[in-house]
Design a protein that fits this description.
Elements lengths: L1 E3 L1 H4 L15 E4 L23 H7 L11 H15 L8 H15 L1 H7 L8 E3 H12 L4 E5 L4 E6 L1 E2 L5 E2 L23 E2 L5 E3 L9
Antiparallel strand pairs: 1-2, 1-5, 3-9, 4-5, 4-8, 6-7
Length: 209
């Protein structure tokens, strides 16, 4: 379950961000190492109409706030949802998006960071301290990604078993192929944060006019 920090996402080029939310939002729920599993299973927004209030709040298209926001959800369904649907618990559009929203509320990343005293602003944090705080909060290792060169925190991923129980996020064998984000983020690209550099957790960005 990938969360992204909208303020950092807005620093990536080729977007029309406007007033990004200052809370962590959903990027997507991604099964490992597969994408575009069923090209004939087309996204149908009416299937998730009951979820629309939560979708708009917690799963907005941060990069393209002036466009039809359903394009982002369509992308996530086409690329990841059709693969996740091999699990009975996720085998419809309503189940896939609904379960992602449930998991987002269950892990409550925004509250956990605040409780640990980690707040966005002008402060720099040690990545090791951030990781330790999150491991204490959840009992598992998360994957934290930053936008270089100033190591701006951008994405935090929670990993789950097929039963949707939290587990440690471990590196896939064969390097960092699994690191790619599920959305083309302009020329900027997130990568696993450098433990030795101070990490910036920005509050607002000048680029989102």
């Amino acid at each position: 379950l990938a969360h992204h920090w909208p303020v950092t996402v807005c620093k990536m080029s080729a977007n029309d961000c406007e007033d990004p939310p200052e809370y962590w939002t959903i990027h997507g729920l991604w099964p490992n190492k597969v994408d575009d599993c069923n090209r004939t299973w087309h996204f149908n927004v009416t299937e998730i109409k009951d979820l629309m209030l939560d979708m708009r709040r917690y799963w907005p298209d941060v990069l393209h706030s002036s466009q039809n926001r359903t394009q982002f959800w369509k992308h996530e369904w086409d690329k990841h949802g059709t693969c996740a649907a091999t699990l009975q618990i996720l085998n419809s559009q309503k189940k896939y998006f609904g379960k992602a929203l449930d998991l987002y509320k269950q892990v409550d990343l925004n509250s956990s960071l605040l409780k640990a005293g980690i707040k966005p602003g002008s402060t720099y944090y040690k990545m090791t301290a951030l990781k330790e705080a999150l491991t204490r909060a959840y009992g598992v290792t998360l994957k934290i990604q930053c936008l270089p060169p100033e190591e701006t925190i951008g994405q935090i991923e929670f990993c789950f078993t097929k039963n949707l129980e939290l587990r440690n996020c471990t590196e896939p064998k064969g390097g960092s192929k699994g690191m790619q984000t599920g959305l083309q983020l302009g020329t900027g690209e997130l990568s696993v944060c450098n433990d030795t550099l101070p990490t910036y957790y920005p509050l607002q960005t000048e680029h989102c006019q």
